[in-house]
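Example 3.2
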Amino acid sequence: MWWGGRGRSFNIPPQKEPEMGHLRPKSMQVSRMEEPRSPQTSSCPALRCLPGEKILAWAPGVRRGLEPELPGTLMCTNLRVLFCPQGWQVRQDSVLNSDYDFSLSNIGRLEAVNGPGRPQILRPGSLLKFIPDEILIHGRDFRLLRVGFGDGGLEPLAFRVAMAIVQARKQNSQAQHYEGMILSKAYCGLGSNEPPVPLLETPEDWEAERRRHGARGWRVSTVNERFDVSTSLPQYFWVPRRTLDSEVRKAFSHFHQGRGPRLSWHHPGGSDLLRSGGFYEASDPNREDIRAVELLLQAGHSDIVLVDTVDELPTLADIQLAHLRLRALCLPDAAVAEEKWLSALEGTRWLDHVRSCLRKASDISVLVTSRVRSVVLQEQGDRDLNSLLSSLVQLLSDPGARTLHGFQTIVQREWVASGHPFLTRLGGSGGSEEAPVFLLFLDCLWQLLHQFPSEFEFSEFFLLALHDSVRVPDTPTFLRDTPWERRKQNGQFSSYTQVYTPGSPQAPPVGDLVPRPLTVWDWGLRYSHQQILQFYNPCYEPHHCSDICSPREQPTSVTPGPPRSIFLFSRGTLTPLNQLCPWRDGFSSLMSSSRWLPRHNASSDSLADQEWGLPPHWGASPLPPGLLLPGFLGPQIRLWRRCYLRGRPEVQRGLSAPTISGLLDELALLQGLLRTWASRPSSRDHMKTKDPDTPLSPSR
């Protein structure tokens, strides 16, 4: 295989597939080896550098870990820190996401150890006070890299590498990304069998998605094509067909950051799920603006449910604090006694937050699927919990969303295109607005995958790859806060306004020679075919979406009248409202933050446990097929061990293997243990004294 580099090319021998259980992406492009200008005596090890990458320092002859030790070379570049085991360049792929590779933005804490004393925490710009025996790199993705130098004249190299890492972290910006990551072909995704993920950057993409959802009462609006309505909204979105763009512009001006109500998902049964920001309390709309707001929220339905998204869910500060506590607890060197570990896990509140999100999403799914209505998710900023709940509701209600392509489309539409601030929430700057909301969503999805293993086409390893992708700055997908910033970074702004008419022919396909920026969905450039096969769930049982429910959409030719019933859903309770707009009859005086009404008494049961909790005049509505109602009580919510405890090999042993050969290896290991135990003279007598629940007990 030939790889193109900066200035020259060289031949790379064929690589073996990575070991079982690790998803190590392939290198994008190989550049010429940059010779470091340091006085190190040993020759620089072979490394397939990324475009723009320079080796700053390296230390050969070091060891990784303690038991067992793994000899190799520690290297520091201007983009990452990596440990290269002996023979790594011959038998391994590039390891951007492996156990041995840390991008600088992924390093959460760097420690230097010398003897039994307290380790020195090396922050950007700090000075190392001694020559370290060991360096501990704590990843923000729950990994730990421990590298020991020991004896043998490595003291100067240890000091030099440690200071190189400190200096590189100081110069590294949280927004820095790998250069040159541009595709030379139109698409490189999961393979020829999977369609490309729509990036939703053109009106044609939005129109195709609208038709796929069957949303006949909606159209694609171009009112934000120049980002002059809101820079955090996409250029295009769905609004009711009978609403003019001029009305949309006026109505959106009364919502926080210009994020007015718009369609998030159309249920095949006829209901519409909308999302919206909070009202500007000081705004004073005229009668025409109020009418436009009502038309957007009503969306052609006679029944409207306004959902207080923030209610019952954790704040951004709560999510950030729980994630920091969880990461500190799951590190291999966590100073928590084994008998107190479970209580410490409960004290992090992370699983409580997962439970509350699943509970809320389950209740909203019932509201969407039980009757034709407009369900509006309202959050003050409309960029965090609205994205999380909207995505979960679609995954619970729509079997098509549980396919690999369907899920990637949801993430692209509800998170990336809708302006979730990935860089602010996951940037690692330690700011007050940092909170891993997207990682909380992935944990919620893992719970669903664990409870319904045959309902999802993708596997846990796909979720792990997506979890780790937010820490690797190789694509702009998770490196910007708004669609406007991504378009500006990619230089894709046009000097004219494109006029789009529904039903017009699509733009010509992008040719193979037209470059486009790399996205996180281009797995084929970073992972091998064998690794991508692990993304698919072998237990998946596909459903026929046509059997889920028959369309009951309201006729689009009928002009909707005033809503018949308006309800506020808050704390598990539906409260009737007299009106829809908060500016009438002094309703704005009752508003606080993004809430429509003051909080009501909390309910101990969900809607699913209260016979749907719906008003009597709505009538009975059977549970639609394909709807998932997860459990969220006690042990039903579990710790994602393969993700959070990946730094502990002893815990990972025994988890389900990703391949058939891996399962055979684990089976052979267990059979060997059984033979060893059975060969002991007093094995049966010894086992009688064991706990009867011991997994390897002969009685079982």
